[in-house]
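Hello support,

Our group uses your service weekly, and this is the first time we've seen a run hang past the timeout. The protein is Pitrilysin family protein. I'm not sure whether the cause is the sequence or the server load. Input pasted verbatim:
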Amino acid sequence: MSIKAFCIALLLNLPLAAHAALAIQHWQTPQGARVIFVESHQLPILDISVDFAAGSARDPAGQAGLAQLTHTLLDQGAGGLSDTAIAHRLADVGAELGGTFDRDRAGVTLRTLVSAPERNVALDILARVLQQPDFQPAVMQREKQRLIAGIREAEADPGSVAEKAFYRAVYGDHPYAHDEAGEPAEIERLTRAGLQQFYRIHYGAPNAVISMIGDISRAEAEAIAARLASGLSRAPAVASLPQPVAAAAMERRIAFPSEQSHVLIGAVGVARTDPDFFPLFVGNYVLGGGGFDSRLMREVRDKRGYAYSAYSYFFPMGVAGPFQLGLQTRREQTDAALAVARDTVRRFIAEGPTEAELAQAKANLTGGFPLRIDSNKKILDYLAVIGFYRLPLDYLDTWVAKVDAVDVAAVKQAFARHIDPDRLVTVVVGASDAR
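Update from on-call engineer: The timeout came from a worker crash unrelated to the input. Re-ran successfully.
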């Protein structure tokens, strides 16, 4: 995972410290879509996110990239409107259409003014995109080539190469193993009929989570949710993904013409609903999640100057997401940096954090490092996560208490249960001794 992705992972693991008292309402539409709603009258704006369990982990065998291409094409022509017409209509009313896509989720977001003329136009576009994607052959071919070009470009980036190899090594034949963007040869073979079938199966109402925050009433929110869900198929919610199997220890070195080696170390971690999440999250802040306060930064950067930065994180997903440690270092000192990183992890798992380290981590997370939610759009991201992963509605209200409840013993026990230092996967891209 890139530094950017790491920051996103960290962000999504943080609390809404300044807004912990959000009144989250939840219901289900008659069509089976689940709805998460926060009534907020501070701004005349409505933000909506509609998410489906249609991420890249749902790609059928031999069709890696199908989920990504399906999601990409949703707003590239729908309900008889071209992509240009959709863009113009949205621009005319000052609305913004966006999207999210990862291994678990595929979603569409909308920001619109709440005044009736503008809102009605924007919701009409959103409904068409969700319910009537055209999947025009010419547009599909264009987007296939664009996706393939993006994959080829990523192949020139050692960080992307390392990330791709890491997921394959950690997850083996699990659906999380392949890259979210897919594989060029498999994308070339994708057909319009395949996209339409994937859409019908995965974009059904029982598979949808509608999240909303804005200047509307509960009654208006119910009407909007019903409108969005009514045109979706009734295909049943997709089954949960299988649980990943922990990989055996391995080290893979990939030759790459770069001055620095990109190093990733890790293993299968935890799901979002894992009861050990908080001890792992707080403990990892000490290990590698606390920036310049972390042990990895002290050992790898401060004491030895092997890297500009070193980090670690748990990326909880629908089923166990990865635990990953990363750094970049000069090729000639790769082995030395690797040894320090591995030793730091091993000692942390054996000894746990000190009382002082843990106190500092908890203070930073709950007080000194509060996340300031300064827009409805940011809050919407959290609502979507809570809804999609079925987290408790009081998740934000209890977050601080759960962090404060973590002690040294809990961290040690949680790490011992989930991370075996003798079974870590290592990927090095840029090493001179590829193997």
